[in-house]
Every structure is written in C-alpha cells, then in structure tokens.
Amino acid sequence: MLLVHEKDMKxxxxxxxxxxxxxxxxxxxxxxxxxxxxxKYAVYRINKDKxxxxxxxxxxxxxxxxxxxxxxxxxxxCRQLSRSVQGLFGPSDPLLGAHIQSICEALDVPHLEAxxxxxxxxxxxSINLYPAQDHLNKAFKDLMSFLNWTRVGIIYExxxxxxxxx
Length: 166
Fold this sequence. Notes:
Layout: H1 6-15, E1 18-27, H2 34-48, E2 56-65, H3 70-82, E3 88-89, H4 94-107, E4 111-113, E5 126-128, H5 133-146
Helix pairs in contact: 3-4
C-alpha cells in the first residue's frame, strides 16, 4: 500500500507539464506566408517564456482551406472545434473569416483573426488584430501631413480594401 500526503500530491501534479492546442485556419495560398510564420513564432515565444503559461506547452494545429470554398472551410473548422479547443485563429480572408467568426460565436469559442472587417459591431467572442479602417485612414492622413505630401496613391491587391479618405 502507498500512502501519499495531499500536499505532496498537489506538488507532484503542479509540476506536471500539460499541453494546450491552439488551432488555426489559413488559406492554401497562405502556406508559409508571413501570417503563418508570425502565428508559429507567437506559439514559440509563449513556450519560451515559462512565466506566461507555467507548466504548460502550447502546440498548434494548422489546417489549410481553399480560398473560395466556405463549405470545406466550415467542415475543417467544425472538425477542429470538435476536439478540445481553447480558441481558433483565422482565416484572414474577409468572407471566410466572417463565416468562421459566426460559427465560433454560435459555439461560444474565442476567435482570433487578423483581417479587414467592415462591420464595426461588437463581437463577444472575437478579437480582430487588424486595425480598424478609420485608424488606418488616420494613420495615412497623419503620415501625409508629417511628410508634407499633398497627394498619395495606395494600391490594394483586393478591391475590398478601398476606403474614402481625402
């Protein structure tokens, strides 16, 4: 028979290393992109600083989805959410991101994203790391004033990035 004091049990279990999985969805064209590398680097930095999550190792599960297929994206998101999940990151595509945000909201799962969002409404379970359009507009305006520029051209890769600033 083995007798173990409760205090010794707590000390033993508090020293055990547990693993938390953070899940992410990136579009296939974002594979090895700066966004994916930043995500992986964030996990690395959190694991390196033991004061942030003591006795815990953060691991990631990244899934890639076609940019134009919300059905497959939903299926992959649901598959990720069916496992133990503390939150979901991505995707940065505005249409897919809004879709995943809606799923996370319905399931009360935290959703982190970095995408343009033209709906300024409060989202209870979502944190968008991308600056709001009015903040970007002010930054461009301040930069133009600081540099004494009277005209500037901004080229966007996608047309949903257009804004109205004079």
